[in-house]
Write a structure and sequence with these properties.
174 residues, mainly alpha, AhpD-like, 2 domains, globular
């Protein structure tokens, strides 16, 4: 049970109620990870807007983004996000034994060369941002990524760190 008061559907009012209704209509449920932001309608709306942006992204695919979230959540030991993204990756056809191998060596992720390079770069940003350099970005650009995509992928990974830490800190369970 969370150690802060999360707004449940029955109690939701105003912007929170609107967002909850939209989630129920589109997903059929309200994830606890989003309920965590419900005490702040501003943060909830921001998180939903960010989710919508990435769900509609032209070049950052769902499997790549789920792998970013999963591997960052492994670093942060966030069971909620590990479980959630594991389920998402199963829907992409990744098997449990593959996930185990990917967690041990992210370079084994079933992505093309372009996406794999971006995944490994994002993990480098999360683990050791001071180790990044121009050659990392040059390689990504050579593979076809642009500055916007590189930044947005890195933002997705670093934002996951913050979400994981909040979920862990406030003891939000799936």
């Amino acid at each position: 049970m969370a150690i802060i008061k999360l707004v449940e559907k029955e109690e939701a009012q105003g912007k929170v109620a609107e967002i909850y209704d939209a989630m129920l209509n589109s997903m059929g449920f309200i994830p606890e990870a989003f309920k965590m932001f419900s005490p702040s309608p501003y943060l909830l709306q921001t998180q939903v807007g960010t989710l919508q942006h990435y769900m509609r992204h032209e070049n950052l695919g769902g499997k790549l983004l789920a792998l970013i979230r999963l591997l960052v959540s492994e670093i942060e030991s966030c069971k909620y996000c590990i479980d959630t993204n594991t389920g998402i990756l199963f829907q992409y056809g990744i098997l449990p034994e593959q996930l185990s191998a990917i967690k041990n060596d992210p370079a084994k992720a079933p992505l093309d060369e372009k996406e794999l390079a971006l995944l490994l770069f994002v993990l480098k940003v999360v683990k050791n941002p001071h180790a990044t350099n121009q050659s990392d970005v040059d390689l990504l650009k050579k593979l076809g990524w642009n500055d916007t995509e590189i930044l947005e992928a890195a933002f997705h990974g670093t934002s996951q760190v913050g979400v994981d830490r909040l979920l862990n800190a406030f003891k939000v369970q799936s």
